[in-house]
Amino acid sequence: MTDTISDMLTRIRNASRVRLPAVEMPYSKMKESIAHILKTEGYVAEVAVEGKVAAKKIKLALKYQGRKSVIEGLRRVSTPGLRRYVGATEIPRVRGGLGTAILSTSEGLMTDSSARKKNLGGELLCYVW
């Protein structure tokens, strides 16, 4: 598998469409950071890392409002074949500020709003709304 972040987003998208309570995926530090951002922004209920060193998994408990998922959409922006970098002044607003863009900066992964506050640019990984 070449794009593990895209795989993570697809697993979350598929699980939320069929209203599964949780979704599991193979572990990586990047995925764990994205999962923690999703938790702090209120898109998922809980993040747990399970297993031993070689066979770690990330388990996300998804959030729902009635029968509708809190996550309406996920979109991968920067892919391995076409990286997308933005400066601090060029960071886009997702759905007019109602969504969240996740960036990989020199200070680690962060949301679009915190990157604007710190005046940092970086690789635009994905949009969540």
Characteristics:
129 residues; alpha+beta; three-stranded antiparallel sheet; 10 strands; 26% helix; globular
List the helices and strands and how they pair.
Layout: H1 4-17, E1 22-26, H2 29-40, E2 44-50, E3 57-62, E4 64-65, E5 68-69, E6 74-76, E7 85-86, E8 100-105, E9 108-111, H3 112-118, E10 122-128
Antiparallel strand pairs: 1-3, 2-3, 4-5, 6-10, 7-10, 8-9, 8-10
Give a verbal description of the structure:
By secondary structure, the protein is an alpha+beta fold. It has 3 helices and 10 strands, in the order αβαββββββββαβ. The protein has helices at 4-17, 29-40, 112-118; strands at residues 22-26, 44-50, 57-62, 64-65, 68-69, 74-76, 85-86, 100-105, 108-111, 122-128. The strands form 3 sheets. Strands 6, 7, 8, 9 and 10 form a 5-stranded antiparallel β-sheet that branches. Strand 4 (64-65) and strand 5 form a beta hairpin.
